[in-house]
Amino acid sequence: MVLEQPGSELRLAELPDPEPEPGQIALEVHACGVCRTDLHIVDGELTEPKLPLVPGHQIVGTVVSPGERFAEGDRVGIPWLGWTDGKCRYCTSGRENLCDRARFTGYDIDGGYAERVVADERYCFPIPEGFPDLQAAPLLCAGLIGYRALRMTGDAERLGIYGFGAAAHIITQVARHEGRRVFAFTRGDDAESQAFARELGAEWAGDSLGPPPEELDAAILFAPVGALVPAALRATAKGGVVVCAGIHMSDIPSFPYEILWGERQLRSVANLTREDGELFMELAPRVPVRTQVDVHPLERANEALERLRRGDVRGATVIQLTA
Ligand SMILES: [Zn+2]
Ligand SMILES: [Zn+2]
User: Fold this and answer.
1) Based on CB atoms within 10 Å of each CB, which residue in 115, 132, 226, 313 is the most buried?
2) How far, in Å, CA of 249 to CA of 242, rounded?
3) pTM listed for this prediction
4) Is 284 helix (H, G, I), strand (E, B) or coil?
5) Which ligand has its closest atom nearest to the C-alpha of 146?
6) In angstroms, what is the span from residue 39 Cα to ligand 1's centroid?
7) What is the pLDDT of residue 323?
8) Which residues surround ligand 2, an ion (CB under 5 A)?
9) DSSP strands (E only) in the chain
10) d(CA 54, ligand 2 centre) in Å
């Protein structure tokens, strides 16, 4: 499926199989997760995609053209971080997620809404055993970047999660595994998401604009809604951190300094490093993370995006390539 112009629907197209360059492997794609970032790209909120573009950056497939790390037939995942220069001040200080020249899968590089894809094998991950393709796909962004956001909360015990979609449903499981207490914040009338959060181990779920039953030690915002930033700061105790985990957010309204005062921190999380991926792929089977997926065939990718846009998804949205 191809995006020709932001603001338009994806178009089903026959493309030649991409040829791997030196250092790249080729995969037959089995599943590709649909991320809110894909929506931001299709809707034109992220303004610099290659065009035409094959979106998709949570790719699971088997190697058909091997490299040095991966052999033919290996089951491999391709994440959002597709390439870095390895030599800028960010790369050389362990912060390749911030590389000025980073290239991203399904944005700068054609992604996984396709039968075949090529990728620089240095940025790919082996898929842990015990995760079927469809269940593994959401680990590659919702899981990885969610996990990076969770690490930014340090050892916070009372964790607020704002927006209960794909990343939240994974990170709630990880947070519970780590012995944290989870408070889930959704739209006030979204009883279904609140029930889902409780099923996954949240001890409380309620209106994102109201106060939680007790103060939070940290909050993660997965919803791209700037108005939630002051709400989360108000809900967070002194010394706590509010982590904005999305790549795009509506404007944050002005707020009184007193809700930041008390050594509260407000920060974002950008992209992932390969280390994040390795740590999370090692942790996911130990939790064990169980993803719930809403599956669509490739040719229905526009509907999959629309369901995500409307918030109609319980868990993660995944495109299935092969039966
Ligand atoms: Zn760099
Ligand atoms: Zn993503």
Assistant:
1) 313
2) 14
3) 0.95
4) coil
5) 2
6) 26
7) 52
8) 35, 37, 141
9) 24-34, 59-65, 75-78, 81-83, 103-104, 116-120, 125-126, 158-162, 181-186, 204-207, 216-221, 236-244, 265-268, 293-297, 316-320
10) 14
